[in-house]
Structures are given as C-alpha cells and as structure tokens.
Amino acid sequence: MTVRGALGLRCAALSVLLLGAVCAGAGGPRDHRPGAGLDGVLVAADLPAARQLALGSTPPSDLVALWQSVLWADGYTAASAVTCAYDRATAGATRIWQNNHHLSPDGIVGPATWGVAAERIVPARGWMVYMGERHGLPLRLDADGAYEVYDGGRFHTLRTDGVTLAQCR
Question: End-to-end distance of the chain based on CA atoms, in angstroms?
C-alpha cells in the first residue's frame, strides 16, 4: 500500500484534518520573522516537553488545537471539536485517550501524554504524519524543525502561545 493510501490523504479528507489543512505540495511561504527565534513555536523535538494542557489553566492556542486534532485522528472527537480551547469536552476525551493508552487518566496533557502521542508521528514524503487510529494527521517541518500547518491559504508555524489558526478565530 502506498503512503498516500495508508494515510488516506485525499483532498476531501484533508479539509477536515489538522487545522483545516488542504491538499498542497510540501512547498510554500513560511511565516517566520527574521531573527524572531523559536519562542512560542512548537519544535518537533520538543513535543514531549510541550506546555502542559489542563482544564481551567490553559489559554487557547494552536498547541491545544494540535492536541484536539490528535484526539480527532484517534477517533475520540469530531473534527468540529478542534476549537483551540482546552474545555471540558477536550479534558473528558483526553481522560479516555489516556486510559486507553495505559496512562493515568487525569485529563492533563503533560510529558507522558505528549510522549505517547509523539511516538506516532512519522515522516511521509516531505510531511510528518501523526498516524491516528482512524485518520492520518499531516504536519510539515520548516528548516528550523518547527511544525507548520496549512491554514487560511498558506503555511505557517504552529504557535504554543496563542491562536493563529483561521478556524479558531
């Protein structure tokens, strides 16, 4: 089976994947400001150490949308549940996901939860793909190793400190 077939990366499917991603090549403009560094940007190598997500203490961000997209890819929520806000529904789905992945079902996305999710991100033809239980979740790495998503007609970096995604604004 081809990578394309295994991941189900068809244009129709991509419209509901991570953050409104659409069929596009691996190239495209980047949203880095020269000299801005990687503060507030999710670097692939840092995913297991990403910011903790917890009900009542997590501000909306692209990082929350990534976690909600993992829950969707694994079949725990609907695509419409990707809202960038860590709400009760997200915490509840997280507890079930954690229990099913042999983690403490506390509803907090910390190092152990991020680590288990990170184990399922694999390279596939210029993309990084979270191999979900029901869906493939495409991501792209920029030259600095930061995750990028296709949203609002262009590629841009996935932010840990705010919401930049069109579907969450």
Answer: 38
Three-state SS annotation for 13-38: HHCCCHHHCCCCCCCCCCCCCCCCCC
Q: Which two tokens stand for residue 70?
A: 């993992």
Beta-bridge partner residues of 76: none
Closest CA to 83 of 59, 107, 103, 54: 59
pLDDT digit string, tens, across residues 114-129: 999 999 999 988 788 8
**What is the reported pTM?**
0.78
Residue type at 134?
R
CA–chain centroid gap for 143, Å, is 18
CB 136 within 8 A of CB 128: no
Q: Which long-range contacts (CB under 8 A, 24 or more apart) does 119-125 make?
A: 121/44, 121/47, 124/3, 124/7, 125/3, 125/4, 125/26
Query: pLDDT (tens digit, 9 = 90+) per residue, 18-63?
Result: 433 322 333 333 333 322 335 788 888 878 888 899 999 999 999 9
CA-closest candidate to residue 55, choices 108, 9, 8: 108
- In angstroms, rounded to a whole number, what is the distance separating the alpha carbons of residues 24 and 13? 13
